[in-house]
Amino acid sequence: VFATTGSRMRVRFFGGYRYEPADAEAADIAGVGYAKGVPMGGDLARPPEPKKGLGVLFGGAQPEVPTFLVHASKDPKGGNLDRVQIVKGWIGRDGHAREKVYDVVWAGSREPGENGELPPIGNTVDLDRGTFANTIGARELAAVWRDPDFNPERRAFYYIRVLEIPTPRWT
After folding, report:
1. Are 158 and 100 in contact (CB under 8 A)?
2. Cβ–Cβ contacts within 10 Å for residue 40, how many?
3. Counting Cβ atoms within 10 Å, is residue 36 exposed (0-12), middle (13-18) or buried (19+)?
4. pTM
């Protein structure tokens, strides 16, 4: 599923167990995505058998953790990109829906603060003229991300959200 509230950016999102950071730089991200996993909207199969190795020394093999390959390109007529987020959802032990948002890749040299939140990118909107400048943000963003809170006993869903730099509304 893909939805937009205006901009027509190009988005790719794949889930699997074998994506590596270099995959985000591949010339054919879609080819890599399909070869190693499933596309947005697909069901990720059970992980392969846990790897043997150091985990055996510490009480058993470690479970495979899902990795996700994301790529977003700006709308040619729209604002540059601020960040790509992955939203993870699951049902808690109490039966209530839970959700957590992870900033995965972002434009500029910003770093998350002590609270873990990424600072705003800035704002180039001229309210008097209803214009903006694409002098901040990125034309495209790509990354491989591993779920740091993965629990193999809990079913979850993941989707991406791509944020643009601030732009004026048509009104």
Report:
1. no
2. 17
3. middle
4. 0.86
C-alpha closest to that of 161 among 44, 82, 79, 77: 82
Taking the C-alpha atoms of residue 148 and residue 168, their distance in angstroms, rounded to an integer, is 36
Contacts of 104 (CB under 8 A, 6+ apart): 68, 70, 83, 84, 85, 86, 143, 145, 160
User: What amino acid occupies position 35?
Assistant: A
Q: How confident is the model at residue 147 (pLDDT cuts 50, 70, 90)?
A: very high
Choose among 85, 81, 73: nearest CA to 145.
Answer: 85
Angstrom distances, CA of residue 5 to CA of 115, 128, 141, 151: 29, 24, 19, 32
Amino acid at 154: R
- For 57, phi and psi rounded to 5 degrees? -70, -25
| CB contact at 8 A, 89 and 156 | yes
For residue 6, give the amino acid letter.
G
Which are the contacts of 49, defined by CB distance < 8 A and separation ≥ 6? 61
